[in-house]
Amino acid sequence: MAASFKLMHTLNKRAATPYDRDSPAHEKKLQELWDTAMASERLTSRVSKQWEKIGFQGTDPATDFRGMGLLGLDDLVYYAKMHPSSFQRVLKSSHHDTAWFSMAVVGINITGFTLALVRKRFVQHLFYKYGVSKDVYHEFYCYVFDAFEKRWTANNSFLTVMDFGRFFEEFQVVIEAEMERTLENSVVLVLDEGRPVFDFDNKKMA
Predict the structure, then answer these.
(1) Which of 87, 89, 154, 203 sits 20 to 30 Å CA-CA off 52?
(2) Residue 47 lies in a domain
(3) Can you give the residue range of the structural domain that contains 166?
(4) Per the UniProt record, which residue ranges are transmembrane (predicted)?
């Protein structure tokens, strides 16, 4: 159990660490998000309307991380780097003519939700099977984001961004119910179980 408490402390600390525009490390990671998400387009300025293309609300994405601090940025960068096909599919869906959504902002909301699930110990069986690590947490985040897009797209004929609040509440209920079922039948919710991060067959929680 010590390992899971240590991970929780790490995640909580990242979520509580505000984005600092004066930090070279923070700025470098934000640039990494752009370079990974928009490889074919150069960011012309640190403060730019270009950020809206990946779902930030304004010209400076630093303001959008207030709720989840650096953990929100960590999650987005991990998703963009480790699951580029899924990430790009979600990004494309976010630009739907009528059922559009702000991808980065939704991602930060999903960070809050997945962190809450970890705090409520919904994800313990995932850690038990694959080991307690930040990467395994990130992989679960990616699964949830992918599931969000699939559910949103399946209903986008009658959704608009104004429906997001209601939709996201319903989505959280669905995922929590799915998590409860996985506890009963030992199904693990990840995008790609073949990834090296899951090579923990003999690793158990300390």
Answers:
(1) 154
(2) no
(3) 2-17+65-198
(4) 99-118
102 φ/ψ angles, rounded to the nearest 5 degrees:
-85, 105
Per-position DSSP letters for 30-87, written without gaps between them: HHHHHHHHTTTS----SS-GGGGGGT-SSS-GGGGGTTTHHHHHHHHHHHHHH-HHHH
Is the pLDDT confidence value at 198 over 60? no
Q: What is the pTM of this model?
A: 0.89
Instruction: Indicate if the pLDDT at residue 116 is higher than 50.
Output: yes
Q: For residues 37 and 54, give the distance between their C-alpha atoms in angstroms, rounded to a whole number.
A: 8
27-77 tens-digit pLDDT: 999 999 999 999 999 999 999 999 999 999 999 999 999 889 999 999 999
Task: Indicate the number of domains in the chain.
Answer: 1
The pLDDT tens digits for 148-181 are 999 999 998 889 999 999 999 999 999 998 888 7
Please give the distance of CA 124 from its chain centroid, rounded to a whole number: 18
